[in-house]
Amino acid sequence: MDNQVSKALLRKKFSNIKSPxxxxxxxxxxxxxxxxxxxxxxxxxxxxxVCEEAMCPNLSECWEKKHATVMILGDVxxxxxxxxxIKTGKPDNVDPFEPLRVANTVSSLGLKHVVITSVDRDDLKxxxxxxxxxxxxxxxxKSPYTTIEILTPDxxxxxxxxxxxxxxxxxVFNHNLETVSRLYKDVRPGANYxxxxxxxxxxxxxxxxxxxxxxIMIGLGEKFNEISKLMDDLRERNVDFLxxxxxxxxxxxxxxxxEYHDPDYFIRIQNEALNKGFKIVSSSPFTRSSYHAEDDFxxxxxxxxxx
Length: 307
Fold this sequence. Notes:
By secondary structure, the protein is an alpha/beta fold. It has a single domain, classed as Aldolase class I (TIM Barrel), CATH 3.20.20. Helix content is 40%, strand content 13%. The chain contains 12 helices and 9 strands. The protein has helices spanning 3-14, 36-44, 50-53, 59-64, 98-109, 129-142, 159-166, 184-187, 193-206, 224-236, 263-275, 293-306, and strands spanning 69-72, 76-77, 87-88, 113-118, 147-151, 172-174, 211-218, 241-246, 280-283. A 7-stranded parallel β-sheet has the order 1-4-5-6-7-8-9, with helices on both faces. A two-stranded parallel ribbon has the order 2-3. Helix 5 (98-109) runs parallel beside helix 6. The protein is globular.
């Protein structure tokens, strides 16, 4: 189905659903002057960040620390997920100079740990995997001691893509499930829950020493028992790290918030996840995939080293 038609159908489906009022504890800080250096470096190197494109509520905090999640392969996605604020349409051609610009940005900001993500590129034969490889290689050339975390699309139907990425010097492979299986049709049209699980399973087989990670949003209408089942599915694939955050509706054209969960609910989820064997769990209203990624990676590495 055409993405624009799909979005129109979703808007119609959600038009009669009203989101509850935002609770007082949901507050987004206003960016300060301290983020200027990060912003200028990103602008100078013509880098796209998911921080800006996805309207991340943690942008101010992260950019003050010179942390930013780089989004490669352009700013136009070939999918039309109902939760996402990134543009949908026909992407531009892949920019062969982007990997070098990303590497220069990582070096200029002095990043010790970097998160690289991308839009979905179903228009490319490898889903953009080679571009990930090129970007990782350029970063390692300029910043050999920087650890690298990638947050990838599902590369659906492109079996060679994961093998290509498994040969690179990455430390963390992240692929988000985003939500429970029952809600995929409305939340992630074009994606497949089981395929995403197998992607996380397969990368561990191809690269056994790697850490794997996945994340979900809550507040989309899922039940606690469905979250618990999702955790079991991830642990069966030996996923190390889980992130859980509150879904915040970008615009009225996106999936409505069905429920705002208080901080105690996130603690309940965190305890459940730790009991199931996840090594690291980040669960809070403003948790996002790359929030405190460097700190959590270091904790994870230390846990494994001391095991």
